Amino acid sequence: DDPRSRYIPWICTGPNVRVNYDLTRSRERTIHTEDTFATACHFLGLPPGTVQGQPVLEVLQHRDLMVSTKGS
After folding, report:
1. How far is residue 50's CA from residue 52's CA, in Å, rounded to a whole number?
2. pLDDT value at position 46?
3. What is the value of pTM for the model shown?
4. How far apart, in whole angstroms, are the C-alpha atoms of residue 59 and residue 52?
5. Which of 18, 19, 31, 71 lies at a CB distance of 3.0 to 4.6 Å from 10, suitable for a disulfide?
6. What's the CA gap between 16 and 28, in Å, rounded?
7. Cα atoms found within 13 Å of the Cα of residue 32, Cβ hemisphere only
8. What's the CA gap between 33 and 20, in Å, rounded?
9. H or E stretch including 25?
10. Which alpha helices (DSSP H) does the chain contain, by range?
């Protein structure tokens, strides 16, 4: 159970994704393996269930384009 195995390099590309945005510039944000699944669920409008990850929304150019899963 080495906690370092939860920290991964994370790259996102596609429409409305910030270009050349470096997630490591934010000391408050660390990307974990679980965040990948939570992000995919959020973008697809699906509830992530009991996954502990958090969607990585700071990669988007316009946060008003985010899909909302509230009320799902």
Report:
1. 6
2. 92
3. 0.68
4. 19
5. 31
6. 23
7. 12
8. 21
9. none
10. 33-44
Q: Which residues of 9-45 are buried (b: 16+ CB within 10 A; e: fewer)?
A: ebeeeeeeeeeeeebeeeeeeebbeebbebbebbbee
pLDDT of residue 71: 44
Strand partners, 32: 7
Supply the pLDDT for residue 33: 85
Residue 58 burial (CB count, 10 A): 11
Q: Is 32 within 8 Å of 53 (Cβ atoms)?
A: yes
- pLDDT tens, the chain, 72 aa long: 677 666 777 888 888 888 888 888 877 878 888 899 998 998 889 988 888 899 999 888 875 544 444 444
